[in-house]
Design brief:
Elements: H1 4-12, H2 22-30, E1 33-37, E2 42-44, E3 52-58, E4 61-65, E5 68-73, E6 78-79, H3 83-86, E7 93-96, E8 100-106, H4 107-116, H5 119-140
Antiparallel strand pairs: 1-8, 2-7, 3-6, 3-8, 4-5, 4-7
């Protein structure tokens, strides 16, 4: 089990939280729960509805879209963040490639953090706008 300092460092390495002060990161960390998952465990299934996101503290996960591997992610990466915003279906399947330690935050707690630390909303909009621009370039050139 990771300690509080490790949780704060894991959160700091997530782009969404990178501009947060230590005090703000502490509030985010308090809104998370640590979970351990073994290699082969499915974290989320594409098309299923979700209400939480996961920050990888330790280990690696594989991200698949339509059964095709699109990424391998490690510590400091976040998966499932779109579900914090809209309760929509998962856009990918994520499976633990190794044993993993994850921080999980559900939608209700995340909204509470946004209400307390509005600057995260701005980072979230920047992050999503960047993704939309990347997808637009990939699709339209």
């Amino acid at each position: 089990m990771a300690n509080k300092k490790q949780h704060l460092e894991s959160l700091r390495s997530v782009a969404l939280f990178s501009a947060c002060s230590k005090k703000d990161l502490d509030k985010v960390a308090k809104a998370t729960d640590e979970v351990e998952m073994t290699a082969g465990t499915m974290i989320m299934d594409q098309g299923r509805f979700g209400r939480e996101a996961f920050v990888i503290v330790d280990g690696e996960v594989v991200v698949k879209r339509n059964n095709r591997k699109v990424a391998t992610l490690g510590p400091g990466s976040v998966v499932g963040e779109l579900s914090l915003l809209d309760k929509g279906p998962r856009t990918a399947t994520v499976i633990c490639e190794t044993d993993c330690t994850l921080l999980v935050i559900d939608q209700r707690r995340f909204i509470g953090v946004l209400d307390t630390i509005p600057a995260i909303s701005h980072k979230l909009m920047d992050s999503l706008a960047g993704r939309i621009r990347d997808l637009d370039r990939q699709y339209y050139g």
